[in-house]
Amino acid sequence: MLKNKKIWVGIILAIILIIILIILGIQNNKTKLITENHLAYLNVNSIILKLDFSEKYEQTKKGIMVGQITTEVNDIDYLNDKTKENLTNLEFKGKSLEETINNVITILKENKVAYQNVVFYTDSKNSEVNLDDSDIVIKKYYQEELNEEEILESVSKVYYRVSFDSNGGSPIASVLVEEGLPLEKPEDPTRDGYTFTSWMLNDKEYDFKTLIKDNMVLKATWKKNETTNNNTSDKTSTNKNNNSNSSTNNKPSSSPVSSTIDKINLNDFISVAINYYRYSTPYAYMYPTNLSELAPEIGNKTDLVVVDDNAIDPHGNKVNDYDFTISEWKKNIFPNLKYDTAKEESVANGLNNLVNKKTKGVELTVSTEDHQYYYEYRYLTINNKDFSTLNNALTTLRNNLNKELSSVVSGGIYIDFLNAYGVYSSYYKTLDEDLCLEFNLVCDRW
Questions:
Q1: Disulfide: which of 11, 95, 121, 204 matches 99 by Cβ 3.0-4.6 Å?
Q2: Which CATH architecture group holds 160-254?
Q3: Span 191-215, pLDDT tens digits
């Protein structure tokens, strides 16, 4: 009996201990909301913005962060006149840090301001910013204590990108040059059978003493080498050795160009233009079911025009010649719209199918969120005059994709903004393995 009693006492004590441990575990797992205030300085090529923002996250009693960090911009400060001029329409109230910075980029694009340099200084270790435009790299610099004077001094410099079109020669990397300084002459490119002569800008030989004040592309010019026939055994042997070395080093031969759309020889040193087309309007991806109720004067019209308040378009037409102003649309129409989600899903599926097809020579990006859609495609065109057939093939592929996109996203409300952006200018590079992979091309060297 005594023995059984001891056993029961042991069991009860074990149960009590387990309950205590569970309670302690629950207590330790309880989280509390942490709010921290931070500063950030955004520099986009001398357009400098100061952002006061807060971070919120859950933290356990042991100081372990759980869940995701959310940010919200509390206030902004324009730090120079150029910033004030370009960002007067910046919306930040209720926006996250990432949303605000992406809004900055969007406004600068609409104002056609160069934005190749994006620098982000902050006293937050945690905050990361992803840009909607995947072709822009944002550099983050963490400083425990931000010194505004030092930051302004370091970001006051403006840089411009200089690219080099080798015109069939070996590739030369582009460089950033500070405004007001001369460009350092790069090493001469090489090309079998030719001698490099000069770099040209707008059909004139470039003077490397010129002070840089804009982005530019320099193009190489070449002089064809004279060839002589010599049948001596020594020369024949030498030529054989040279040919052997040429093959070993993967250098292009003087034979006719062999690249095709199905198999591209990278040793042809093909110069390509990377072109952009972006379609993104804030309210375009909609299949409303109640537009005629909200705006009887519009009815079920799908081709709407929305303009900035007090705007006058390039033709001199005033706001009252159009359907809505942005403030009117946001206040009275947009918050109350109801949507046909089945049609929205169909568009999303169609766009995703096009992405999965991986069209040669085209890189397609799409997004379908918040009753909107966005797509951007980058496509290659060949600039070397010897590659006209290849150039036409890639352009045809891009045009076919454009037709497919039009069929997928037809319908819904099409809203035309007076300052909507579309086609962007190209930039030049020499085709290499990375670009072939990115644009789904079959490339090799022989």
A1: 95
A2: Sandwich (2.60)
A3: 888 899 999 998 899 999 999 888 7
